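Predict the holo structure. Ligand: magnesium ion.
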Amino acid sequence: MEIKKGIGVSPGVVVSTAVVLDTEDLVIPRRQVAPAELDAEIARLHRSLLENIEHLTRLRESVTARYGRDIAGIIDFQIGILKDKSLVEQVMAEIRNGKTTAEYAVSQVMRKYAAIFTQMKDNYLAERVKDVHDVERQVLRRLIGHKHHDLAHLAEDVVVIAHDLMPSQAATLDKAHVKGFATDVGGRTSHTAIVARAMGIPAVVGLGDLSQIVSSGDPVIIDGYHGVVIINPDEQTITEHRESERRRLKVETDLAGLLDLPAQTLDGYAVCLQANIEFPAEVDDAIHRGASGIGLYRTEYLYLAADHEPDEEEHYGAYADTLLRLKGRPLVIRTLDLGADKYTQNKAASPERNPFLGDRSIRMCLHDIPMFKLQLRAIMRASVLGDVRIMFPMISTLMELRQARMVLNDVMEELEDEGVSFRRDIPVGMMIEVPSAALMAEKFAKEVNFFSIGTNDLTQYTLAVDRTNEKVAGLFCPAHPAVLGLIRDVIRKGARNSISVSVCGEMAGEPLYTLLLMGLGLATFSMSGPDIPEVKRIIRSTTIEHARQVARRVMSFDSERQVLHYLREETRKIDPEAV
Ligand code: PEP
Ligand code: MG
C-alpha cells in the first residue's frame, strides 16, 4: 500500500480500478518519400487535418451541451491551431523540402510551435502548450492509424490516472464509468480541476510521479476531500473507504429527501444555504442539491477556461445564463480574483516573488481599470435580469474598497449616459479574507451591504500558511483559535451594523464546523453544491441553543486540537455519519 499526497481539487471518495493513460510521446521516425509521392503526403495531411477539425467541431457541440460554453472554449483553441494557415504552410514546406512523411513533418513543426509557448514563461500559456501537444497527438494518431484511448465508451467503472489529462480527453470522459481522476501535475486552475468539478467526480492533482507508480488494473482510492491517492490499499483501508463511499452515497440518497425541507433547526432557527460555482452550468446541480442561491460565483474561471481575455459580451452572456438558470434566486458575483495561483494570459509575464502577497485579486483589478470596468459593465447590464449582488474579493484597506466603489459608480454613469438600464441600488459586498479586513470589520460594515468570509484565504493569511503548498498542509487549519476569533468578531460586527454575513470558504461546507458557525451567529453558508444536503441535515438535527453552547465552549479552547476533538464529539452525537 502506498499513499500519495496531492491537491484535492474536486470532492468525493472513490475506490476503483486504475486505467493509466499512456503518456509516452509518439516517436515518429524520419522516412524519405520519393518526389512523385510528395503530393499524396500533402493530401494525406489535409485529410487528417480536416477529419480532426470535424471531430473537434462535433465534440465542441456535445461539450457545450453538457458542460457549457466555458469548457468548449478549450476546444475552440485547438480548432484554431488546426486552422492556423501559417502552421499548415510550414508543415507543407517541411514535407516538400525535407522530402519526408506528413507525420514526421507534423511532429517537427508542432514541436517548434510548442517550444514558442513554453519559452514565454507564462503559466497560462504553459497550460496552452498541452493543447498544442494534444492537437499534435490527435493529428498523428489519424496519420499513423493509432486509435485514441477511448475514454468515452468504457465497459466498467474506472479511475483515470495520467501524467496530465489532455483537455480533449478530460472533456470527453464517459461520465457513467469514469469515477475519478488523479494526475502527476496540475494545480487548482488546471483543466483537470475545472472539468472534474463540472463533472462532480473526485480528483486529486499535483501527485508527482503517480502515473509511473500505478499500473492499469491496480486498485486505487482517490480521496478528493483530503487530496490523497492510495495505491494497492490493504483490505482494511479499502473497507474503510468503501464504507465512507457507501455512507456518502446513502447519505446522498437519504439527503435527496431533504431537498424540499427548510434548512431550519428543531427550534425554528432558519439558515440560508447557498452554493459556490465556477461555471454557469453548475447552477442546475446546485439547485438540485437544495441551494437557495449562489453565494459565490468565481468569475475568474471565465478567463482561466478560455484561450483569450473574455470581452464584455462574453461576461454578460455568462451572467445572463447563470441568472436564467437561477430563476429569481440570488446570485453573488465576485469580481475577478485573478493572480497568485490563478493567472491570465498576459498578467503572468513577470513572475512575482510572493504572488499570494502580490498583485492579485482586487489589487490587479485596480491596476487594470479597463479590464475591471469591462466586467462591472457586464454585471450591471445583467443586474436587471435577476437578483444580482456584487462582491469585491481580497479587500485589505478601506481605500481599496472606496476605489472599487468609485469605479463601479463611473460604470453606472457611463451606462446611464448610454441609456442602458441597470439596477442602481445593487447590493455591494466584500469578502473578508485578509486579517486587516477582519480586524477593521466595524469600519467596513458601514460601507457595504454584506460580508462574506473567505476562510480559505483568511486561514492562509492569518496563520502564514500557503494554502497550495502540500509541505505545510498540516498547518492549514481554520479551527485555529486565532482564525475562529476573527470569524466570531466579523459575524458580531456584521450583526451590530445590520448587514448580512456569510462564510463562503471550504469551512462552510464541512459538517464538522456547522454547529460552531451557526452558534457564532452565522445565518448564511455558501459551499460547493454536493456539501449542502449533509450540512442541512446537521442543522435540522439540532437546536440553536445547543449550537450556541458548542460555540461558547469552542471559544474557550486555546488549541486547534481541542477544537477539532470537541467538534467531532459534538457533531457525532447528533449525526454519527457526518464526520
Ligand atoms: C476563500 O478564500 O475562502 C474563498 C472563498 O475564495 P477562493 O477560494 O476563491 O480564494
Ligand atoms: Mg479567496
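The first helix runs from residue 38 to 67. Residues 455 and 507 are 7 Å apart (CA to CA).
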